[in-house]
Design brief:
The chain has 232 residues and is mainly α. It has two domains: 16-58, Orthogonal Bundle (Arc Repressor Mutant, subunit A), CATH 1.10.10.60; 69-231, no CATH class. Helix content is 68%, strand content 0%. The protein contains ten helices and no strands. Helix 2 crosses helix 3 (47-58) and helix 7 (120-161) crosses helix 8. It starts with 15 loop residues before the first helix and ends with a helix. The model is unreliable at 1-6, 115-136 and 160-232 (pLDDT under 50). The chain binds a DNA duplex (21 and 21 nucleotides) through helix 3 and helix 6.
Length: 232
DNA sequence: AATGAAAGCAACCGCGAAGTA
DNA sequence: ATACTTCGCGGTTGCTTTCAT
């Protein structure tokens, strides 16, 4: 081994072949020990790079596609509570990464807080843009509401058709989706305020997660108070 | 159609916490 | 107790794509 010479790691965008090697390695050996991944998987990347690529892009449970209005509302809500604690926020959005949320917030909301420093003409353009964006959001929400309603109707139809003691996989999927929607709405009370006008029908069962959330929020409030006390 | 600006996103960097020998 | 390694986080950079003029 050449102790005096540092290993030259590859940098920049990942190739398809590199992705394939990493996925194959993680699937057969599991996550962790990222520094050894480079040599074991035949990659010329450092551990950090491998971990990042896996966590932010290759993990099978990642949710692809755009951030939904509901997710956006969650981000806003949690960011208001926790600030830039992206990984904490990400834990509340299954399938989304801290990096994704961080990028989203920076591009969509960071600028908004700076608009007070922007000259009027630019501000006008931005306001117009934002109006367009909000209109698109409303349309998307209506579409989503329609889809939710359709799911419920289909579920009821299937239930009445199959008055037997078991559920088909499709029915289970739909029920899980509905449960997820309901869970989300009970976890984030602010969402009901934000989406109240869209006629969301949200049954909100008091599940045990709610208590956990409340505890977490209180914990954070305490943290905030402590910080404020320190600062003063 | 060309071009510059803005937005979006993947990846890198530095730092600190946790784990380990 | 301490030095070293590993991991995870938040901030930042730089490239690509999209949009506006």
């Amino acid at each position: 081994m050449y102790w005096g010479v540092e290993q030259e790691w590859r940098k920049g965008p990942w190739t398809v072949e590199e992705d394939r090697l990493l996925v194959h390695h993680v699937n057969s050996h599991g996550e962790g020990r990222w520094n050894s991944v480079a040599t074991l998987a035949g990659l010329k990347r450092n551990g950090k790079s491998c971990r990042l690529r896996w966590v932010n892009y290759l993990r099978p449970d990642l949710k692809r596609g755009k951030i939904t209005p509901r997710e956006e509302a969650v981000i806003l809500d949690l960011h208001a509570r926790w600030g830039n604690r992206w990984s904490t926020i990400a834990r509340s959005l299954p399938g989304r990464t801290d990096n994704e949320i961080k990028n989203y917030w920076r591009t969509h909301f960071k600028k908004k807080s700076e608009t007070t420093l922007v000259e009027p003409t630019k501000l006008k353009t931005r306001l117009l843009k934002r109006q367009k964006f909000q209109q698109a959001q409303r349309q998307q929400l209506q579409l989503q509401q329609y889809e939710v309603d359709m799911k419920k109707i289909m579920l009821l139809l299937e239930e009445s058709e199959n008055k037997v003691g078991y559920m088909t996989p499709t029915m289970m999927d739909r029920q899980q989706e509905n449960m997820y929607e309901e869970q989300q709405s009970s976890q984030y009370p602010m969402l009901s305020q934000l989406y109240g006008s869209t006629n969301y029908v949200l049954e909100t069962p008091m599940n045990e997660d709610f208590g956990l959330w409340e505890g977490l929020w209180n914990l954070d409030d305490n943290h905030g108070n402590l910080c404020a006390a320190k600062a003063s």
